[in-house]
Design goal:
The protein is α/β, with parallel strands linked by helices. It has eleven helices and 15 strands.
Length: 364
């Protein structure tokens, strides 16, 4: 008896045509003429990526503040030799010519600094996660509005080339209505072993790391409101650090489902894949890590194409976060990554962590 492939639900092989790459603007924006003086408060590990990006963009960083002056001086000498160094950040707030403050400390230390910066009449770029409480986030957004200042959140993943291409392609309607989004990540984060600030975080993956994926989800799904979220986390027996390294999330929207799978203890064969399926096509990015996503696959009815991407997350992302704030100030509009906009991302993140803690879905 002959076997018919249709008996098994198999589709006949189709010849795939190569199509022209859709025109999508995904690179970070650039201000036309606005290049104000910038100060950075907090010169911990992440701040070097900020300074490196600002140096490449030609931005003017004129002051650095850190409780340990040696750290600030080291980065000052490396990236902005003419900048002043301060142990007390309050000294920076009295300098009228400084218009923008990049605030990088951890959330609990950062909150009073954000209030002080806004009350001093400065525009602010806050490190993520923005706040630990949504009401505090609303208060800061309201304060910025009252003072006619802009406050944005350094959700730099929005300008990671693959995420930026995907969110803009969705916005342009290239793949129609989004039906599913899948994030699958396996990476090696064993370097955190023994570092107290990380070892104490039960929600290391779903909060400190996955905030980027909740944020990009909120960007891709801005036309729908979430209905339900379920998240879980697991600590496997052979882990080298204490916080659970495995986590997963499912978010139900009225017409779309989003899934996330995280394994932060993959020491061989790392991979990071994003797949977005729409009613008219599919977008896919795949690489060995979040900073190695050099090609976007676009699959449409008329054919497919692989598009080489320029830049990488740790370059384009940090450039984009500050550049978009500058453009917004220059154009007198809200930044794309405004504090108020970021509250949608935090709502997802907080609900996921609550779900993982309670072991049940959370309704919105």
């Amino acid at each position: 008896m002959s076997i018919n492939e249709n008996d098994y639900g198999l589709s006949p092989e189709k010849e795939i045509s190569t199509i022209s790459a859709p025109l999508v603007q995904y690179l970070p924006p650039k201000p036309k003429d606005y290049n104000p003086k910038i100060a950075v408060i907090g010169t911990g590990g992440i701040s070097e990526y900020h300074l490196k990006a600002y140096q490449k963009c030609g931005f003017q960083v004129v002051a650095l503040a850190n409780r340990t002056e040696g750290k600030a001086k080291s980065l000052r000498d490396k990236y902005f030799p003419e900048a002043s160094v301060h142990k007390d950040f309050q000294e920076i707030l009295t300098v009228d010519e400084i218009e923008i403050i990049d605030v990088t400390p951890h959330p609990s230390d950062r909150l009073p600094i954000l209030y002080d910066c806004l009350n001093a009449g400065k525009h602010v770029l806050s490190q993520k996660p923005f706040v630990l409480d949504l009401e505090e986030g609303k208060k800061l957004a309201d304060l910025a509005d009252r003072n006619k200042r802009r406050i944005a959140v350094n959700q730099n993943g929005r300008w990671a080339p693959h995420f930026s291409y995907i969110r803009n392609a969705i916005e342009q309607g290239i793949i129609g209505e989004v039906t599913s989004i899948n994030f699958s990540l396996q990476w090696d984060q064993t370097w955190i072993k023994g570092i107290p600030s990380f070892e104490k975080m039960d929600n290391l993956i779903l909060f400190d790391f996955a905030i980027h994926w909740f944020d990009i989800t909120a960007c891709m799904m801005k036309t729908q409101n979430p209905e339900k979220i379920y998240a879980s986390r697991v600590r496997h027996s052979k882990q080298s650090y204490r916080p659970p390294a495995l986590a997963s999330v499912i978010i139900d929207y009225p017409k779309t489902q989003v899934s996330m799978s995280f394994n932060a203890h993959c020491t061989q064969g790392e991979e990071d894949t994003t797949t977005v399926v729409g009613t008219m096509g599919t977008l896919r990015s795949r690489g060995s890590g979040l900073n190695d996503q050099s090609i976007i696959e676009v699959h449409l009815r008329e054919g497919s194409v692989k598009i080489p991407l320029k830049g990488c997350w740790f370059e384009s992302g940090f450039q984009g976060a500050m550049s978009e704030l500058l453009c917004a100030i220059e154009e007198d509009r809200d930044p794309y990554h405004s504090a108020r906009n970021n509250l949608r991302s935090l709502e997802l993140c907080f609900a996921a962590n609550e779900s993982a803690e309670l072991g049940k879905p959370i309704n919105f």
